[in-house]
Structure prediction request, 188 residues.
Amino acid sequence: MCRLKNFLPEDVLLTLYNALVLPHLNYGILLWGHKVEKLSKIQKKTMRIITSSNYNCHTEPLFKRMKVLKATHLCSLHELNFCYKLENDLLPPYFLNYMFNKHSTIHRHNTRHTNNFQIPQVRHVFAQNCLRFRIPSIFNSTPSAIIDKIYTHSKSGFSKYVKHYYLNSYKNVCDIRNCYSCRMITNR
Prediction:
């Protein structure tokens, strides 16, 4: 892509990104998604190449302009899609016995956290990266505006809503005072 950036327009480079890079990010993201640091750097570099930006340009405005999710939010999107399938019984029977228990199954009291998942007790840091721990954690920490859409939207509508939610959280411009990279761009 770096060699092609001088010959192809931005929209064609974005199509190449969606065809060549994004499938590699999506593959198995539920299993390795807790470790996205290295892939995040590659994704940022790719966004800078697509938009012909400087090597030290802020990428959050680029992600927003290109309507592409960052690797961390892409992982969260897939985890929330898993929650959607879990809540709507769209998962294979194997996952029904995977110990995703809600607080409402433990007691009959009507409390604030009745609809939250019970987070299993873990003894090792390694166990915190497995689906049994991560899925209940992300479900419980997600804003109720998103969780409510699990019960009212279709799967594709839910995915679009979550993607737009994350894209709207990105900044349009840098708001760092006396930012070195932004100052270098404006001085040119």
